[in-house]
Amino acid sequence: MFQPLEPLPSNLPAPTFCRRRLSSVHTNTTPTYSSQEAPTAAADEEIPTIDYFSLFSADTAHRSKALDCLSAACEHYGFFNLVNHGIPDGVIDGALSGIADFFERTPVEEKSKYKKGDPGARILWDARCHAGENREHLKLLARPTFHCPPNPPFFREALGEYESRLHEVKLGLARAMSLTLGQEESYIEDAFELELGFDVAAMNHYPPNFMSKGTMGLAEHTDPGFIVSLVQDMDGGLQILTHQGKWINVHIPPHAILIQLGDQLELLTNGKYKSHIHRVLVGSYKTRRISIGTLHGPSINKFVAPTSEFVDDTHPPAYRGITYSEALEANDRYEIEVQSCIEQLRILPAVV
């Protein structure tokens, strides 16, 4: 069993209303980094912090400022820390504690019942320990129906409460993001049919470095869906490749939620709002870490393609349309695996 978790540091920086805006412009190209760069090298930089309640403030000027900050975060970063989101600290802590107990107390024989086998499975468990990946993970369908292992008994209740409250936050962000795109509040919610959205909770147990084989907890990738919401029980480990091609360390204040834009939002907006490459490291951490990332998707059969609002003569469609189910099943994957296929959907520019 992994060693007990050390307490969270008390000197984490306090969140702010809105961080600075990057100056570089958005492109429809995939960011790259130098082959000479060390595999896990990254810089410590501030990332945007968005106050959720400010997005719905009755004060028009205050709300407008918050929406401007959200717009800049989505277009120039593709991720941000969300604070003042209304989910009680105890609900987040309960969900993290529940999944920690599942990983550390449930016998392997019982967890192995959920290993990959049935293409229609709604719960998936696995554990990997090699140079490219060091983690144990559990994925389960959170919405439109909730699936969860029965043990430990309080885990189902704790995670269900967290996902229920997170659903409301997701809908609120969809409405606010719609406004930042110059559309009606219901635009994203309708385009993705979010009330019936295929949401998958992906929970990870990263080992301490002395139990890992290499520095990588999870190799670089992007995520499908509308957005991904992430909470974890200690800070550190996550690195993101910015749209400007620079790896940065991501620090999440206690009980804040990291929001990352998903592939399907990139498709819908024809690349105006982009998903991003990220990875997880274990090499410098002496204790185990727990995270819950929920991938909030469109309804499973929803067809997503660049819409007319983001296509014109100077911005032709940059992606092929596809249903969410087809996207998740690409490359012989199961829906519950929620793997990206964004690179296969890009339309290469015509050669003149």
From TrEMBL:
Pfam family, one: 2OG-FeII_Oxy
Gene Ontology molecular function terms on file: L-ascorbic acid binding; metal ion binding; oxidoreductase activity
Superkingdom to which the source organism belongs: Eukaryota
Swiss-Prot/TrEMBL keywords: Iron, Metal-binding, Oxidoreductase, Vitamin C
Domain Fe2OG dioxygenase residues, every copy: 197-298
SUPFAM superfamilies the UniProt entry points to: Clavaminate synthase-like (SSF51197)
Similarity comment text for this entry: Belongs to the iron/ascorbate-dependent oxidoreductase family.
The protein's name: Fe2OG dioxygenase domain-containing protein
Organism expressing this protein natively: Linum tenue
